[in-house]
Every structure is written in C-alpha cells, then in structure tokens.
C-alpha cells in the first residue's frame, strides 16, 4: 500500500470513529428514551410498574402531592422508588391556567392564574418534602401541570431551578444535547397512540442523534388521556430489542447526563 492509500485509509478510520462517537453521545447509545407517567394513578402501580419491571426498565412517575393514590398507597410508591423508578414532582394540587381555551376542568381552587408565584413555589417545595419522605432522595425532576410555564407572565420555575435537576414540559422537538433547555424539557404526549406511532418518534430521535421523552397519563384506562395497555407492552418489547442502541432511563438520570454534557462544552 502506497503512502497515498495509507493516508486515505487513516482519514476514513478517523471519520468513522468520530461519526460513531458523534451518533452515540447518549451514554454510549444512539439516543435516549424517557418514559414518564403523570398524575399518580392506580393503574401506574397496578399495571405499568410491574410491566416496566418485567422488561427491566425504569420510569418516571410525576406525583400530585394531594392525590389520594399517593396518600393511600405510600408503601407501594416507596417500593417503586427503592426499585429505581423516579418519583417526580407534579405539584401539590396540579394547578392549570383556567383562562386558556379548553380549560373547563379547572376549578377556582386549582386555577394557576389566581396563584401568586410565592404560593406556587411554596406548594411545589412542600411536595418535594413529601416525596423525600417517601423515597429519601434529594434529586428529582419537575413536570409542569398542563404544560403551563407562567403566572402573570412570570416563569415561576426560575425560582425553583436549585430545587430540581430539570423540568419537563409538553412541547415536542428533537434537540441536540447541547441545545436542551433543562427548564422546559421537550416531550411527546401520548393520547390514543399506537406502538407503531411511538416507535416512529423514537426512530426519529435515533436518526437525529437526539432523545425523546414519552408523556403518558392513563395506560389501559383511568384517565381521559389514555393509551391501550397492549400498545404500551409492544413499545417496551421494541425498546428491549433495541437496548444496544437506545438508552432507556429516568428523567432525572437523563437530565443529569445532559447537564454534565453541557457543562463540558
């Protein structure tokens, strides 16, 4: 082999190595997937967590502090956390902005537009205290109820950045690691989704070298925003087959990884 061919072979090797590193920047995988479940439902304890455990995946469960499913089933939530699932903060009373269209379900008591920033911050911190009493952990993530970010044009999470590793929103996108906004982490809400539709979202994240957060409420019932339990199982089956290329982790672990990656740049 002459010098020219040696140089070309060397350049190809460098390119291929760099490309492999570039497309496997999610804990050594091509992309990351986070499975999140909102509102503290019985179905999460009865069906979802056992299914995740069967496939050896960990999920993030955003608990409403005042939800009866929290107070009545503390032991089971504690066991889930001990087994590696994240208990995230979804506020004390799930306040949403009642002035927005389609918000007929919002009552005067949980109308975010009637809150002060101080009240919102205090209730979220109270919920953190409750969650720590359940799981003993100091690090966790937050999820905005209804995806509402502001109170009277004030971004209330700005007062809570030191309390959390990150905050999950509801806007769908495929950002690169360096561009992720940890104060409003992108997510894809699943409402009536099939496994094929969710897999397509994951494949797009893999193709772009990004990550995807799947946002669930009901899984097999108990909530108007629901997907079928069998579609959820098919999704987990796909993720299990793709473990070599896809990192499935909790929101807190992925947010910590993103933060570390951004700080290294």
TrEMBL record:
Lineage: Bacteria, Pseudomonadati, Bacteroidota, Flavobacteriia, Flavobacteriales
Organism name: Flavobacterium subsaxonicum WB 4.1-42 = DSM 21790
Identification of the protein by name: Chitooligosaccharide deacetylase
PROSITE patterns linked: NODB (PS51677)
InterPro entries from the UniProt entry: Glyco_hydro/deAcase_b/a-brl, NODB_dom, Polysacch_Deacetylase
GO molecular function terms noted in the UniProt entry: hydrolase activity, acting on carbon-nitrogen (but not peptide) bonds
GO terms, biological process: carbohydrate metabolic process
Domain NodB homology: 31-249
Keywords attached to this entry: Signal
């Amino acid at each position: 082999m002459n010098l020219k061919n040696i140089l070309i072979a060397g350049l190809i090797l460098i390119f291929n190595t760099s490309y492999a590193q570039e497309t496997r920047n999610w804990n050594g995988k091509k992309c990351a997937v986070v499975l999140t479940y909102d509102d503290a439902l019985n179905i999460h304890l009865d069906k979802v967590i056992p299914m995740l455990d069967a496939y050896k995946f960990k999920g993030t469960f955003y608990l409403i502090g005042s939800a009866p499913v929290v107070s009545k089933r503390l032991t089971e939530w504690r066991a889930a956390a001990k087994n590696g699932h994240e208990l995230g903060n979804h506020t004390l009373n799930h306040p949403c902005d009642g002035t927005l269209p389609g918000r007929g379900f919002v009552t005067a008591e949980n109308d975010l537009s009637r809150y002060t920033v101080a009240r919102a911050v205090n209730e979220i911190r109270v919920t953190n205290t409750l969650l720590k009493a359940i799981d003993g952990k100091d690090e966790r993530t937050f999820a905005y109820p209804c995806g509402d970010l502001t109170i009277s044009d004030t971004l209330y999470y700005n007062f809570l950045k030191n309390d959390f590793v990150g905050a999950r929103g509801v806007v769908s996108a495929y950002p690169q690691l360096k561009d992720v906004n940890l104060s409003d982490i992108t997510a894809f809400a699943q409402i009536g989704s099939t496994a094929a539709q969710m897999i397509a979202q994951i494949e797009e994240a893999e193709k772009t070298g990004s990550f995807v957060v799947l946002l669930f409420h009901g899984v097999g019932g108990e909530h108007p925003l629901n997907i079928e339990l069998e579609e959820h199982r098919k999704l987990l089956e796909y993720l299990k087959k793709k473990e070599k290329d896809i990192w499935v982790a909790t929101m807190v672990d992925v947010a910590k990884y993103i933060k570390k990656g951004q700080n290294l740049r």
